Amino acid sequence: MTNPQHTSLNPRPRTIVITGASDGIGAAAARILRRRRPADKLVLVGRNPEKTKRIADEVGAAYHVADFESLGQVRDLADELNALPEINALGNNAGGIFDGPFMTADGFERTWQVNVVAPFLLTYLLREKLAASQANVVQTSSIANFLMSAFDPTDPNTLEDFSAERAYGNAKLGDILLTRYLHTKGLASVAFHPGVLATGFAQNSTGLMHTLYSGLLSKTFAKPSQGGDNLAYFLTGTPGIHFQSGEYYNSRRRLGLQRPIARKINVARRVFDDLGRQLNAEWS
Questions:
Q1: At 233, which helix (H) or strand (E)?
Q2: Among 72, 125, 174, 269, which residue is least crowded by beta carbons within 10 Å?
Q3: Please, which domain of life does this record's source organism belong to (predicted)?
Q4: Torsion of CA 180, 181, 187, 190, to 10 degrees
Q5: Active site includes 181?
Q6: What is the DSSP letter of 223?
Q7: Looking at residue 255, what DSSP letter applies?
């Protein structure tokens, strides 16, 4: 599963949607895909209008603006994306680590909502179009799911014993559980760790991760293009050949380290069946 040129196996133009595409991994993936697959239609989603437009103009992509701290904006985004003729791949890449706990207007802790709730809702609202195109659905997870998490299915928002790092680890574990859940719903779904990269994802936190990503140590981190290459790989890969649906891979595209609870499909069903009821987004 390490051949970076596998995209040549899929010559038919595809429509690829990438969230969190105004910077970092998402922007890097857009650049890579445009270079390798110039006929593909890229649709970029970002929170910042100016930054998102800048990347979209650079790579010749369409773009949409949505802040995942608002589920109303996620629903509006889904309406816009459902107007596309087809979606062949969805990169659920938006995310971040935040101080808190901070409850959004939608009633979820911000880290959980941005990293897990919003991607779940967006994928649900696009489910018919994704299924019709046999689309790949890719979650950007992290080794933080193993190193920082202490996941309690009764407290997915991490309101008990909150720390920015634990909430982020739990959210990245949640992305793996979401991947397993989507697989049970018939979607080709995969999660991956992009690598330890020099990006600005910890800029909204004042904790340990912010210190690491803004200090001298960050100069030793890999470039965002490495993570972008992995995201592009899974977005354009073939299930059963380049990845197994429902699985989580490390930055070398091998099965990645994860907590035992992340492997439990009964936990995935419990978390996302309950979330579906809360959002009026229950999978049939």
A1: helix 224-236
A2: 72
A3: Bacteria
A4: -30
A5: no
A6: P
A7: B
DSSP string, 143-158: THHHHT----TT-TT-
Tell me whether strands 188-192 and 136-140 are parallel, antiparallel or unpaired. parallel
Which sign does the torsion angle of CA 217, 220, 225, 230 carry? Answer: negative
Would you state the structure tokens that stand for residue 170, as one six-digit string? Answer: 């739990």
Q: How many helices, marked H, and strands, marked E, lie in the chain? A: 11, 7
Which residues, listed in sequence order, are joined to residue 270 by a DSSP beta bridge? none
DSSP bridge pairs for 46? 65
Burial status of residue 111 (CB atoms within 10 A of its CB: 0-12, 13-18, 19 or more): buried
CA distance 260 to 209: 24
Task: Compute the mean pLDDT over every residue in the chain, rounded to the nearest whole number.
Answer: 90
Contacts of 123 (CB under 8 A, 6+ apart): 90, 92, 130, 137, 178, 182, 187
Q: How far is CA 104 from the centre of its chain?
A: 19
Pick the catalytic residue from 124, 168, 181, 248: 168
Band (196; pLDDT cuts 50, 70, 90): confident
Least confident residue range of 8-22, 93-107, 256-270: 8-22
Q: What is the pLDDT of residues 207-255, one digit of tens each?
A: 555 454 444 443 434 466 688 999 999 999 999 999 999 999 999 999 9
The full set of domain ranges for the chain reads 7-277
Return the exposure string of 73-84: e unless at least 16 CB atoms fall within 10 Å of the residue's CB, then b. bbeebbeebeeb
Options 3.40.50.720, 3.30.230.10, 1.10.10.10, 3.40.50.300; CATH for 7-277 is: 3.40.50.720
The residues with which 137 forms a beta bridge, in sequence order, are 90, 189
Report, as an integer, the average pLDDT of 99-124: 98
Terminal Cα distance for the chain, rounded: 33
Give the span between the Cα atoms of 189 and 175, in whole angstroms.
11
